[in-house]
Specification:
2 copies of one chain form a homodimer.
Chain A lengths: L5 H12 L6 H10 L9 H13 L3 E4 L6 E4 L3 H13 L5 H10 L3 H16 L1
Antiparallel strand pairs in A: 1-2
Chain A binds a DNA duplex through helix 1 and helix 3.
DNA sequence: CCGATATTTCTACATGACGTAAAAGTATTG
DNA sequence: CAATACTTTTACGTCATGTAGAAATATCGG
């Protein structure tokens, strides 16, 4: 899967958090508004990044409207799950990894994990 | 965390699978022996990669012995767990992600996951 | 319909990671 | 000490990414 650079990541975060599709200008403004990094990127920069994200399949664009409108192709969670599966690989040591991983999560998470597992199992 | 290139990954795999520390020459031979890629890398290539892996903290080297001997600093599983946590991030959507992730694992794995969870909970 | 303006596409460059290895330096050993 | 083994230094090509100017194209007010 495609890992993301810092800017790509920021753009995806904005798209994931937005209910509406966003334009390159929307994104540039939102990026400039973030934290202390009032960098004011050029719109072309944002467009380049969007094109790359589109090629990676992470973003869909509406070419029908004039300022093209961009949306995330899949949810943030689905994307993260993809990353998890990438990290886990097809290796045979999945269970060993999961065991260690679970050993490191919080008690709270252990509880909800269990709840999730229960609901899955019932299906 | 540091993600690995193809060669770096191959080297780590060999180190992870080896009980003994390995030398650059050991690794070069082992790499040449892998599958159909009888590339016969130069030893300096292997040494460069090892130096980079050392800088990344993934590999430790014994400088005392003359042909330096290299070992993986942490287990493959621990490394993978690190990747998992990187992928999950510190975000608040961990549970949503875990829910989706678990929804996608096999029944077998669900069972062992449950077993693992049980043992953890008892602690 | 036209010129001004907005938007997109094309092209470009710097940086850093990675694969790759020759050249040069240093240690070992007969 | 000379030959050999090993390590460090230096180097280059490629690719991903951040960044944006130039060029092309579409839109809009008049």
């Amino acid at each position: 899967m495609a890992s993301l650079g810092d800017l790509e990541r920021s753009v995806m975060d904005l798209l994931w958090d937005s209910a509406e599709p966003l334009t390159a200008n929307d994104l540039r403004d939102a990026l400039a508004a973030r934290g202390t990094d009032a960098k004011e990127l050029a719109v072309t920069t944002v467009l380049t990044v969007l094109a790359r994200l589109e090629k990676k399949g992470l973003v869909a664009r509406e070419r029908s409207t004039r300022p093209h409108r961009y949306t995330a192709s899949s949810s943030r969670e689905d994307h993260t799950v993809g990353l998890l599966n990438d990290a886990l690989g097809t290796a045979q040591d999945r269970e060993a990894v999961l065991a260690r991983f679970i050993g490191g999560i919080s008690a709270d998470e252990a509880v909800s994990l269990r709840a999730i597992l229960d609901s899955v199992k019932t299906v």
